[in-house]
Design brief:
Chain A is α+β, with helices and mostly antiparallel strands and about 280 residues long. Chain A is about 35% helix and about 20% strand. Chain B contains 16 helices and no strands. Chain B has a single domain, classed as Cytochrome c oxidase-like, subunit I domain (Cytochrome C Oxidase, Chain A), CATH 1.20.210. In chain B, about 70% of the residues lie in helices and about 0% in strands. The chains are: A alpha+beta (about 280), B mainly alpha (about 525). At the A-B interface, helix 2, helix 3, strand 7 and strand 9 of A face helix 4, helix 8, helix 9, helix 10 and helix 11 of B.
Chain lengths: ~280, ~525
């Protein structure tokens, strides 16, 4: 999960690793470090992705425990060193049918659970506004379709200075290192937003984990999708498709404001932007 | 009738007495001109071992840079060259040649054939490789450096590459040609050179898995060759297959690439299945459970591998029906794969197990490949894949399948057959140390990458946000351990070639198969006369 205050925690040094490991693990819930699992996010899509992820993870865990238990039992019990005498059986139709049918049933169940979610995620109808996202090497452009306002969003200066080879800047001292931009995308919370996404040069992919939105930006193609942010806040993501040397340095920041604040923001931004464009 | 038999027996003895044209040539020419399947098998295996360390060194550079946040050692472009080359070298230069090496050595001996069916083609299949590898590696020293657009060679990014671009494409062509020729040879050998009585359903499973692999290669490799040729003409001859501005389609390349790329995954793992299916029964002292089911499972995996490719592309914006089809067809692969894991487990059930190094690596394969299989099933779930895609979760998944999966099987096979190849037993104590170091460090390396991916770290980035620092450091420490452990493997192999306790013909405790009926080391020519197959 991309926490906002990631610089607040202490990074482990190699030497301190072993000694501080137990303490760090015990402090797990309080820290963004040692993160283990997928975010539940702030959209219904992210919640569905999380739920399906947990479902299939639990299925795998339970099946895994069963299968590994049998393997370990066999390894421990049927040892030559313990005088085990090998049996001679080579097949068992009944067992083979059982262990073909059971995985099939599990998969049918999984498909049954998953397919409707896929349909819901694909449904971009009834959106209230449209944003056009364009990927460039190495920045994003956001356009509020219908309100004639667009801007670029690039890696924040502090991160950009610190990430240079041999910069001497400790990334721990930079706020939201590599996950901060100069101009975040601002959206209204609680509104179904349709996005159109394309690219101007090479492939990119716009990914915000908290929204479970990951859609490729492809030159010549316009992909679409949607998200509805339930909770105002700042959400961070990154480009997820290799796009050249600075692929790791074109983050995404989305600021979800209450609807009225968003409208005020857009109105305020449009006025000076029109002047700039005229120049 | 009896006269003919006596004559045959005489000529057989004659051959052994006067080794005039049967023995290997002396010096370097033996290796350059050889048409002997054992020599060529050795060449493949040595080439693969060298490439393991070349590709491994690149992995070490990657993990060194990712040890801490911030850029300490390399610039982002060189980092991308390393990730791209690491993949190309490990896939085309290391793991595929390793398994072809096993095929060369073992298939004729397993089916009772004197050699491969097409020995000169065999020589050529191998000798393409060092040149292709050299061309590929030489790009690192060209102005602008090596390919940096990822091993998937996606346009338009790949077209931004500098001088390295045509050389990379040419190297991929050569590597593919080598694979296709090798596959033709393997199919012809298996179909035509089996000893009388060696019916298809009596063949060792390793031969079966390679037969199916060879068909996959012949079907998939030309598709890749076509795809990269279209890249080449887009770049130099003004075509626009993949350029939207000229009416082309960048996504078309992805479909072509993964139509090759997904079968490629099984091209890599099926021979591994085959090796493990030879080793587990041997050290369980019990025949392979469900042989026929194993053959059918392998064949169905081979078939399914051609209809699931777009699960690598869930985020490109496919129509809903496409996403649904590729999600459900991908889930189906879990069934034959599960059958295989259950059959290996059932092979051990009520066996009499011992734990020599080949068995240890095979058991690690069994556990850790299963983990890779689980994460594969997770990745098939499209709505969740929107989160997993292009993150370290994917990196963890395919490394679990390829390293403790395919590579461990190859290492297991090397320990298993080294005594047959060299006539010497390897050092069991060192082998076990190598196993435990590898098995522990491989998990320290790759297990945390699941967490990194789930927490949101994209793959193919040289630097990362600070909340990913801890697991990256653990992963890097594990990878250094894994890299160093493999030096030990090279040492053990060299030590075994040079000497060691003499191996018997059987080597192991009453193993099944024709390869154990010939002396150790296997004579330069085996089965000049077809053996009797019960």
């Amino acid at each position: 999960m991309h926490r906002v205050a990631s610089n607040a925690r202490r990074r482990l040094r190699p030497g301190a690793l072993l000694t501080s490991l137990p303490a760090t693990l015990s402090a797990l819930p309080a820290q963004a470090a040692w993160e283990l699992n997928m975010t539940q996010g702030v959209t219904s899509t992210a919640q569905e992705a999380y739920d399906l992820h947990m479902l299939v993870l639990w299925i795998c865990t339970i099946v895994g425990i069963g299968v590994f238990a049998v393997m370990i039992y066999a390894i421990v019990t049927f040892r030559k060193s313990k005088g085990a005498v090998p049996a001679t059986f080579t097949h068992s139709t009944r067992a083979e049918v059982i262990w073909t049918v059971i995985p099939t049933l599990i998969l049918v169940f999984l498909g049954y659970e998953t397919a409707p979610a896929l349909v819901r995620i694909d449904d971009t109808r009834n959106s209230e506004m449209t944003i056009k996202i364009t990927g460039y090497q190495w920045k994003w452009q956001y356009e509020y379709v219908g309100s004639d306002y667009s801007f670029f969003s690039t890696l924040a200066d502090a991160s950009n200075a610190a990430r240079q080879l041999g910069s001497g800047v400790d990334p721990e001292t930079v706020d939201n290192y590599l996950l901060d931009v100069d101009n975040p995308l601002v959206v209204p919370a609680g509104v179904k937003i349709r996005y159109l996404i394309t690219a101007n040069d090479v492939l990119h992919s716009w990914w915000v984990p908290a929204f479970s939105v990951k859609r490729d930006a492809i030159p010549g193609y316009v992909n679409e999708g949607w998200f509805k942010v339930d909770k105002p806040g700042v959400y961070r993501g990154q480009c997820a498709e290799l796009c050249g040397k600075d692929h790791g340095f074109m983050p995404i920041v989305v600021e979800a404001l209450p609807k009225a604040e968003f409208e005020a923001w857009l109105a305020a931004r449009k006025a000076p932007a029109a002047t700039v464009a005229a120049n | 009738m009896s006269t003919t038999n006596a004559h045959a027996g005489q000529s057989h003895e004659h051959g052994h007495g006067h080794d005039d044209h049967h023995g290997p040539a002396r010096g370097l020419t033996r290796w350059i001109f050889t048409t002997n399947h054992k020599d060529i098998g050795t060449l493949y295996l040595v080439f693969a071992l060298v490439m393991l360390f070349v590709g491994g060194a690149m992995a070490m550079i990657i993990r060194l840079e990712l040890f801490q946040p911030g850029l300490q050692f390399v610039n982002p472009d060189f980092f991308n060259q390393m990730t791209t080359m690491h993949a190309l070298i490990m896939i085309f230069g290391m793991i595929m040649p390793a398994f072809v090496g096993f095929a060369n050595w073992m298939i004729p001996m397993m089916i009772g054939a004197p050699d491969m069916a097409l020995p000169r083609l065999n020589n050529w299949s191998f000798w393409i490789l060092p040149f292709a590898g050299t061309i590929l590696l030489s790009t690192l020293f060209m102005p602008g450096g090596g390919p940096a657009g990822g091993w998937t060679l996606y346009p338009p990014l790949v077209l931004q590459a500098g001088n390295s671009f045509p050389f990379t494409i040419f190297a991929v062509h050569l590597l593919g040609m080598s694979s296709i020729l090798g596959s033709i040879n393997i199919i012809v050998t298996i179909m035509n050179m089996r000893a009388p009585g060696m019916t298809l359903l009596k063949m060792p499973l390793f031969v079966w898995t390679w037969l199916i692999t060879a068909y996959l290669l012949i079907a998939a490799m030309p598709v890749l060759a076509g795809g990269v040729t279209m890249l080449l003409t887009d770049q130099f001859f003004g075509t626009t297959f993949f350029q939207a501005a000229g009416g082309g389609d960048p996504v078309l390349f992805q479909h072509i690439f993964w139509f090759f790329g997904h079968p490629e995954v099984y091209i890599i793992i099926l021979p591994a299945f085959g090796i493990v299916s030879q080793i587990i029964p041997t050290f369980s002292r019990k025949p392979l459970f469900g042989y026929a089911a194993m053959v059918y499972a392998t064949a169905s995996i081979g078939f399914l591998s051609f209809i699931v490719w777009a699960h690598h592309m869930f985020t490109v914006g496919m129509p809903l029906a496409g996403e649904m089809f590729f999600m459900l067809s991908t889930m189906l692969i879990a069934i034959p794969t599960a059958v295989k894991v259950f059959n290996w487990t059932a092979t051990m059930w009520r066996g009499s197990l011992s734990f020599e190094t080949p068995m240890l690596f095979s058991l690690a394969f069994l556990f850790l490949f299963t983990i890779g299989g689980f994460s594969g099933l997770m990745l098939a779930i499209a709505p969740a894949d929107f989160q997993y895609h292009d993150t370290y979760f994917v990196v963890a998944h395919f490394h679990y399948v390829l390293v403790p999966g395919a590579l461990f099987a190859a290492i297991a096979g090397a320990y298993f057959w080294l005594p047959k190849w060299t006539g010497h037993m390897y050092d069991e104590r060192l082998g076990k140390i190598h196993f435990w170091l590898s098995a522990i460090s491989v998990n320290v390396t790759f297990f945390p990458q699941h967490f990194l991916g789930l927490a949101g770290m994209p793959r193919r980035i040289p630097d990362y946000a600070t909340q990913f620092a801890d697991w990256n450091m653990i992963s890097s420490i594990g990878s250094f351990g894994f890299g160093l452990s493999q030096l030990m493997f090279a040492y053990i192999v060299v030590k075994t070639i040079r000497g060691g306790r003499k191996a018997t013909a059987e080597v192991w405790d009453r193993p099944e198969g024709l390869e154990w009926t010939v002396p150790s080391p296997a004579p330069y020519h085996t089965f000049d006369e077809a053996p009797a197959v019960k």
